[in-house]
Design brief:
CATH superfamily: Cyclic phosphodiesterase
Strand order of the largest sheet: 3-2-12-13
Number of strands: 13
Radius of gyration: 17 Å
Distance between the termini: 29 Å
CATH architecture: Alpha-Beta Complex
Largest sheet: 4 strands, antiparallel
CATH class: Alpha Beta
Number of helices: 4
Structural class: alpha+beta
Strand content: 25-35%
Helix content: 25-40%
Amino acid sequence: MPKIDLAPPLPSFLSYKSALVLLPPRAIALPIEAVRGNHDRHFKRWPPHINLIWPFLAQPSTAEPGRAHRTLKDEIRSRIQRATKDIRSFHMNLMADHPGTFQMSKTFTNVHLKPSTDSVEKLQAALQAEFAECDYDKRPFVPHLSLGQVKSAFRLEQLRTRLRESIADHLEPGLDPRLEWHVDAVLVLERKDYNDRFKVVGTIELDRE
């Protein structure tokens, strides 16, 4: 299940302002964002993503002289590379023909896209084993890419309809309408303040399959 931003205090070495994630390629991100913009209350703070570990290590990046952007710390990059050294890039789709749901609260239902392969679970398990200290969330890992939150079955059907329309409007001709994705990198996100949008501070590529 997804984590929320208004959460209990963390140990000092963890932060809700950093995350280890997968980010979809632009070709399939466009129709996803068209839906999230109207339905996801976290749209302004998060890009479309699948969380692998969140909360993650506090202050994972550093500012280098002469560079406008922050860069991932070498020791964190090395740990991610070590965790993923035996994991190859892989193909999957997001099963956009049948979005999943789970109950977030008495009021809201989360609507999301689910990976078509268990390769995401295997990748996350390898990373979790390396970053064993990032274990604040004790719930079983369930990979998903959130589209939004709804309050009723009617709103749920509206979102599903909007997703189909968005795929038809934005997806390039010839691409799989289930939203095919070649996962070839793990990314570290960070934000300065809780209401800021997450930015990529590190990209660690997976070996080609």
